[in-house]
Design brief:
- There is one protein chain.
- With 93 residues, this protein is mostly helical.
- It is built from 4 helices and no strands.
- It is elongated, with a radius of gyration of 25 Å.
Length: 93
């Protein structure tokens, strides 16, 4: 059983975040499951990429934006469905 330094583990975890566990394990000569266990046991860092909490007004504004975008996409889908029907009908002739 190999003993790895804390610094080595941290660098291995950083590399596995960048290129994936399988590639990092092969590149470093560490068994895949060892590196996978290190990732599983790792504590979330304070610099994790969590979204900051939004205020009520920001949530409402974001919700309105998403509803507007959703309506536009539904309209675009309807147009595409109509066009598909038009061109499919034309091909049958």
């Amino acid at each position: 059983m190999s003993i790895y330094s804390k610094e080595f583990k941290q660098e291995a975890l950083r590399l596995s975040d960048e290129i994936g566990v399988k590639k990092a394990a092969a590149q470093l000569g560490v068994p895949y499951y060892t590196l996978a266990d290190w990732r599983k046991d790792r504590k979330p860092s304070s610099s994790s990429k969590e979204a900051p909490a939004m205020s009520e007004e920001e949530l409402r504004r974001r919700n309105r934006e998403l509803e507007k975008e959703n309506a536009e996409l539904r309209q675009a889908n309807d147009i595409l469905k109509d066009a598909l029907g038009f061109f499919a009908k034309d091909r049958k002739k």
